[in-house]
Amino acid sequence: MTTVGILGGGQLARMMALAGAPLGLRFLVLDSTADACAAQFAPMLQADYRDEAALAEFARRIDVATFDFENVPAESAQWLADHVPVFPNPRALAVAQDRLAEKTLFRELDIPVPEFATIDTRGELDAAIARVGTPCILKTRRLGYDGKGQFRIKSPADADAAWAALGPQAARVGLILEGFVAFQRELSVVAVRGRDGELRAWPLTENWHVDGILSASLAPAVADESLQAQALDAARRVAEALDYVGVFALELFLHDGVLVANEMAPRVHNSGHWTIEGAETSQFQNHLRAVLGLPLGAVRPVGHSCMLNWIGEMPPAAAVLAEPGGHWHDYGKSPRVGRKVGHATLRAETTAGLADALERVGKALGREAQVAPVIARLR
Ligand code: ATP
Ligand code: MG
Ligand code: MG
After folding, report:
1. Where does the record place the ATP-grasp domain (predicted)?
2. Which ipTM did the prediction report?
3. 144 labelled binding-site residue
4. Closest by Cα among 306, 192, 205 to 254
């Protein structure tokens, strides 16, 4: 009996546990909170990630460890890796935790990135704005997610407001200034690399964000072969440079035909949730296969899929369940503003069929605005 340890017990761990059940896997989740939503499907150890006694017990009870949460302290990941196999490796995790290290790596690998500058003091901000140009975005280097820890700078006059918002965090999490990319589209590539180095990538996915949070994903993206090849090439270079094992995502901006890298997620990714129903093998199943050294599953799409995120609270399920290609995922979380509480995936054989399904669901749920950009892309 193989037990997979997961650091972090959110919806990603929950969906991993569900995907691992047919493989006969057991799971153990380490999370610092009592109400982790993976706990419904996996035994839990509730402790701080820095608690060495808890890490020791965790290591003793598992065969391999992986992550649902990328911000596990790097020292904890390293401690664990000294006692049990950990995938992805702690160095890959550390690079992906820090926007500066991540962008520096992308640049070394000749992957296009926005202009960027690291900042430690208020004095450095003005010079950085002058160098990067406006508009630009001040971001925390570490611990940001769902657009938190970001301040958009339209002109140099916004520097004081930006510093007031994020300056107090500079010493703790670091700051980076990034040029604003006037992208035409946002895309992501979700890929998996096995222990033997084999790399597979699902088709490019197009993503729409609202208030910095993923709202909808369409896969396969309406994109030509050359874009797909550019994305796969970038994913391969990153994965090989980090000796990465498992699933990861690269978030990309499409700007004048070029894919500019925004960030990487060293884990299964929200823009890959459609693979549960929309691909031969889901990102969750392939992540488990990768970390266990099993053969990887095929990543080919099955039809056309759109994933809709439910943020804050769950809508009623009936309209999605009534669709022939409708699939519902309720993470079992209590409602809270800005919280990802579930998602739906609509799948159809044709793009026209998917657009029709989105139109029906958008109307039934009063979420026309959420589905509109996807329908516009499909028609
Ligand atoms: P996630 O939940 O994806 O980890 P995050 O907090 O790490 O989010 P980012 O991915 O950096 O945040 O930014 C969130 C969104 O804000 C992006 O998907 C994009 O829509 C927009 N954005 C971020 N950086 C830039 C940029 N340099 N130029 C243009 N838009 C940007
Ligand atoms: Mg991020
Ligand atoms: Mg992001």
Report:
1. 103-292
2. 0.98
3. yes
4. 205
Rounded-to-integer distance, Cα 373 and Cα 345, Å:
16
What tens digit of pLDDT does each residue of 194-251 get? 999 999 999 999 999 999 999 999 999 999 999 999 999 999 999 999 999 999 999 9
The residues that bridge with 251 in the sheet, in sequence order, are 188, 263
Using only C-alpha atoms, the chain has a radius of gyration, in whole angstroms, of: 20
Does the pTM exceed 0.90? yes
Place of tokens 């549960």: 276
Residues 357-376 have a mean pLDDT of 98
Q: Is the CB of 209 under 6 A from ligand 1?
A: yes
Enumerate the β-bridge partners of residue 259: 254
In the chain the domains, ranked by start, together with CATH numbers, are 3-86 (3.40.50.20), 115-179 (3.30.1490.20), 185-378 (3.30.470.20)
**pLDDT reading at 34 higher than 90:** no
Q: How far is CA 117 from CA 61, 103, 110, 174, 360, in A?
A: 43, 10, 17, 11, 46
Consult the annotation and say whether 186 binds a ligand: yes
How far does the centroid of ligand 3 lie from the alpha carbon of residue 312, in Å?
18
pLDDT cut 70: percent of the chain above it: 100
How many CB atoms neighbour CB 223 within 10 A? 18
